[in-house]
Amino acid sequence: QVQLTESGGGLVQPGGSLRLSCATSGINFSVYFMGWYRQAPGKQRELVATITSGGRTNYLDSVKGRFTISRDNAKNTVDLQMNSLKREDTAVYSCNARWGTTVYWGQGTQVTVSS
After folding, report:
1. Is 57 in a helix, a strand, or coil?
2. Please, is 53 exposed, middle or buried when counting C-beta atoms within 10 Å of its C-beta (0-12, 13-18, 19+)?
3. What is the pLDDT of residues 41-78, one digit of tens each?
């Protein structure tokens, strides 16, 4: 059974940091293209960051320089370090695993940036 489980969300003040983690099981993690998405209330889901099986990364323009995606193929995890958080980063963050046409999603974790 495939599982993607996010953790690390919560409430943080503007300018603060959070680290999200996505633990996976049931997949050959090292070959999967991994990504973090987010969806804010009333808005469409958007792709925040991706990392290839080889470690190449890509970011949404609005998070470049603030967010860092990383993966640990030994632990089957993908993390998203979020620094200098802004109110507009408030959303449900979900991790995504993709290999060819096979796609899996986690259930999401809420990130709220508010004073």
Report:
1. strand
2. middle
3. 999 999 999 999 999 999 999 999 999 999 999 999 99
